[in-house]
Request: fold
Amino acid sequence: MRLFCKSFVYKQAKKTFIFCLLFNSILIFSQQEIVEIKGKVFDNENIPIPSVSIYIEGTTIGTTTSFDGDFTIKAAINNTLVISYLGFKTKKILVTKEIKQPLNINLEPNVDSLEEVVIVSVGYGTMRKSDLTGAISSISSKDLRKGVITSTEQVLQGKVAGLSVVQGSGDPASGATLRLRGGTSLTASNNPLVVVDGIPGVDINTVQPSEILSVDVLKDASSAAIYGSRGANGVIIITTNREGRSKSMSYSSFFAVGKVNRRLDMLSANQWRAYIRDNNIQGATDFGGNTNWPEALEQTSFSQSHTLAFSSGDKKSGVRSSVTFIQNEGVIKTTNLQRLSGSLSAYQYGLNDKLKFQIGLNTSTDDWQPLDYRIFQRAYNLSPVIPIYDNNGDFTSVGGTNYENPVEILTNRTAKDKRHRLLGYFKGELDVVTGLKAVINLSYELNSHKGNLYKPTFAVLEGNTDKGFGQKTLGEYENRQLETYLTYDKEIGNHRFNVLGGYSYLENVYEGFGSLRRGFSTDLFEYNNLGAGFDYQSGDVYSYKGQSKLISFYSRANYTLSNKYMFTATVRWDGSSRFGSNNKWGLFPSASFAWKISDEEFMQSTSKWLNNLKFRIGYGITGNQDGIGEYKSLSIMGAGSASYYDAVNDLWQTAFTPTQNPNPNLKWETTEQINIGIDFSLFDRLNGTLEVYQKNTSDLLYTYSVPQPPFLVGTMLANVGDLSNRGIELTLNTNIISTDDLQISSDLVLASNKQRIEKLSNDQFETDEVFSGSLFGLPGMSNQFSQIIKEGFPVGTFWGYEALGRDANGRFILSQEKTDLGNIQPKLTLGFGMNFKYKHFDASFLTSGMFGQKVLNATGMSLWDRNRLPAQNVPDAFLESGINSDATFSSYWVEDASFFRLQTLTIGYNFNFESIGISNARLYATGENLFVITGYTGIDPEVSTSGLDSPGIDRFNFYPRPTTVSLGINLSF
Reply:
């Protein structure tokens, strides 16, 4: 009874105390002047933050910000507002009569807590950034490159240390080349695996830049090994805007103007005439024209982009949709890309929030006009005294090889290509018991490309000679994929565990056909009635189809002790139909460890200036199966030119003969990698990461010559060679100034990689060297090669004679032996950017650079030829050079292509239109490719480095990269 009474009295006293406290707060509040305060909360990059806690200090009165960062709260004069959000430093604001409204509050990141809450995609799940043990770089949507983006990979340029994004052309229909920590293959793809919303192997352009929420790049093997035989080149994980946790609408748009800012300085018509006159050259024909042929191909480009997005949802369900239209006109006439894309996603929770379903759909359609790149060589070949049109108004035609009118080539052809992309997925998540989650992800991807081409009977080149040329092609591939896995999380005291186990099934089907016809009696039908052409040849009609399957089992275990010691181990088993019968399954393990040194007791004396110090080390094995096409391990028969007599039917039949040797030992290329990294944070201002790595790739795929007999075919694809990459990377993110009115931050990424071919031969398959970089098609360069694949050298090594100088007659003096002339691999890559914000103004710039790489200026090598005048044109500088040699490949034309480019410069202003229902309004102007600093004498030093045919060779195939100025607006409602 006593116990009951004491409990009763205590409860009543407690209630009385709370009542008195609340009553007193209300009484005091009622005696003071009350004001309604409105405002908006941003991060240090001026991005609105939802769900920020705002309350009056010492009371229970408070609110939270909306999805767009807006809030409203009533407070008394001299009250203190407390603004708090996890991962940011708490801020306090005194309420006064003079307080300026609406408040624009910028929160400064708290490095220590931010590491704990930032979530990073690691493949088949996420992890806290503080728990990472591998080399993973993360970029949020606000940090991606902005501007006139025609290919999604461009948004990563200059943003990730070790990731090289080479935009080798200004053609609006062209993409970029991605290389992460150097290439690992000679013949297979060197592009990283792209994962979109948990779906591996997706075309990166299926997702539009406006839909990207974050990008996580798995750079080392300990991180990428969870993707097994597809992870050797690293993994890029893209997370899109899938959930709309509020009702909102946004619209963004820009209009852009582009111009060619650099071209080769060729002789003008007056300079050509002066040269003929001064040198008393007889027989030179002056056609009376005054033509700048490269400029005749160019135009001022006008581009535009519009994106409209809607979202509506809460904690239970929601939907988000967006649509984007892009029209990107090229600076070469007739080139243009139009893209219409859309996305739709929805989510629904059930079973007391234990069950979650997600569906998503991304689709896009591209229309563009492919360019005949032969126009560039003709534009530099033709004499400036030849007019574009003759006296009759027709295109001027002067006979000669590679001497056709480039404007006529550009005009008198019809080329229209179309590409469709579709990605759909269904994802289900079920919390089975506490800590145990089951996930299933079903996806379907379709990519189709349709080509149409017609050259009329009056067109030069194939049109005239073939009496009309028409062609239609269609190719498509489908990916059907199932990913299902279980994850289990458990925390016991200072111990935290996460275990993953899963199964994956992928079926890829590709097929296509093509048809071409010549000899048209009318040009009326163009490519729409190929049957109207009467001239057809063997091989004019073709079709193909292929299929492959990949089945995988994978597992990962993470263990964290006291938030200071982290261990991760993964393993994946891949079984592929592409592999030979003796190597159907591959095993890809990895292990890594991290130690948060700054949390140790012996480091407490450094806590005032050293916020974070973490050491990481990881090792793993990954694979690359992209070099193994379907059925490459099997014996294949094909229809050839031979025939046999069929006595039964009294007919000559086409004979099928062996076209491929079987190789039951064919397998994936294997890459082993060790990575050592250090993460650090200093003075709450500077965050950095230093990485050192060594990659060794074995079992390189290459096609080798084999003896006949015993083999039926003279070549065979085999795993033989070894290749190594080693390098160092540095990332620095600096929060220089962070006040209410002024914020300044910077980002720097540096990387250096060294590549070397270690082995090309073994006991069965042997080759000492392979010549590549063919110069065929250039004047005087038949059967000549500019590069070599050789043990001890990197891929893309230029191999030829060294130019020792010139003799008295102006002819090059060359070395007696061929030697290494440099290579296409940059010694250093750089990306540097800064962000500024002052009150409502913001500004940013992004620069990038590559240093130490070589490029063969084959265009200059061909143009600086004494034999070109007077029939063809030459560069203006050639007349003063003293060169009197025929076009000759040597070190003179292998140039240092180092460059530093201002990629983007943006200035913006944020308006306050909340009174009319616009939560955010920003007007901005952006300039792109405003300048480039380089010693390269060609048009642009950023030349494509993909493939083995002509990497790093500038040979009349460069579409000028424009300088672009755009004006845009972002609105949120």
About this structure: The CA atoms of residues 775 and 784 lie 6 Å apart.
